[in-house]
Amino acid sequence: MASSSETIRVGFIGAGIMGVPMAKNLLKAGHGVTIWNRTASACDPVVAEGATLAASAAEACEKSDVIFVMVSDPAAALACAEAAAPGLSAGKGYVDVSTVDAATSTEIAALVRGTGAMFLEAPVSGSKAPAEQGALIFLAAGDRQLYDRVAPHLEVMGKAHFFLGDVGAGANMKLVVNSVMGSMMASFAEGLTLTEKAGLDRETLLEVISLGAINTPMYALKGPNMIKGAFPPAFPLKHQQKDMRLALELGEKLDVTMPVANAANEMYKVAQGKGKDDDDFSAVIVALEK
Ligand SMILES: NC(=O)C1=CN([C@@H]2O[C@H](COP(=O)(O)OP(=O)(O)OC[C@H]3O[C@@H](n4cnc5c(N)ncnc54)[C@H](OP(=O)(O)O)[C@@H]3O)[C@@H](O)[C@H]2O)C=CC1
Ligand SMILES: O=CCCC(=O)O
């Protein structure tokens, strides 16, 4: 690891909804960023602000001291780690901020540590807008030395960061949070649908909810668009369903019965069947349309 006075070169893998604003915030804070994405053109907005485009994941790692990875799911995260490994070595740090299960994260950790590099999982709570505002919440676990090393970077991209222990703890915490969130959204969708069928005004429902104990930023933010039937993607529905599935697998492994999350997951699957994969997860409401 470079000493604290040394300039840390930052790599970024993944230029999706989350990766682009996160990488841009690192640039804005003065960090040099080398970026790679499977589809190179997705890096254009980050390159336009001064990032260097790498030709491969391994090259991004060769040119960096710490590498952040933000890709879609366990298969993508594993594929990126395999592609990145030839560019990793002792002294480097690999920080996977994608939402994956603990088993995948453990596999990635072994791959990364096998090169001599350090590993941190740090999935995030917070969506597109918090990513743009540098207001994410990082749920980190793995090599504590790397966590301390990248704390300034996490502070540029986020408003809070937690160190939760060994690899898997961050992944599990993230799945718990998203399982609760996915169930809340499914329940909210039911409430909006029931309100309409009862001949009541859905805007009034939003106002009533906003004044009471179940008020939440998510309902206030997503409700108006749900009423309009508009679902611009901040958190794609396919990723929410992936997280419900992974949370349910965790429940199965730990013998925790999760009837609410199970029912919500079925709603996300119905919405997927109606072509809503790439819409925002609030499009779960279409699962209730007859
Ligand atoms: N959007 C959100 O609100 C939040 C998302 N998350 C999590 O963050 C992660 C990224 O989310 P988000 O940015 O929304 O996702 P996007 O769908 O916008 O982007 C997915 C990224 O993964 C890449 N990718 C997919 N498959 C592969 C593969 N096999 N090999 C290499 N790269 C691959 C894509 O590359 P390509 O451009 O080539 O397709 C793209 O860069 C997910 O794990 C998600 O659950 C966490 C918190 C909030
Ligand atoms: O994983 C996605 C989380 C979205 C959010 O926290 O708003």
UniProtKB/TrEMBL annotation:
Highest taxon, organism lineage: Eukaryota
Keywords: NAD, NADP, Oxidoreductase, Stress response
One MF annotation (Gene Ontology) recorded for this entry: glyoxylate reductase (NADPH) activity
GO cellular component, one term: cytoplasm
Active site: 174
Domain 3-hydroxyisobutyrate dehydrogenase-like NAD-binding: residue ranges: 168-286
Limits of the 6-phosphogluconate dehydrogenase NADP-binding domain: 9-165
Catalysed reactions listed for this entry: glycolate + NADP(+) = glyoxylate + NADPH + H(+); 4-hydroxybutanoate + NADP(+) = succinate semialdehyde + NADPH + H(+)
Pfam family, one: NAD_binding_2
Xref: Gene3D superfamilies: N-(1-d-carboxylethyl)-l-norvaline Dehydrogenase, domain 2 (1.10.1040.10), NAD(P)-binding Rossmann-like Domain (3.40.50.720)
Record function comment: Catalyzes the NADPH-dependent reduction of glyoxylate to glycolate as well as succinic semialdehyde (SSA) to gamma-hydroxybutyrate in vitro. May function in redox homeostasis and play a role in oxidative stress tolerance by detoxifying glyoxylate and SSA generated in glycolate metabolism and GABA metabolism, respectively.
Family, as annotated: Belongs to the HIBADH-related family. NP60 subfamily.
UniProt protein name: Predicted protein
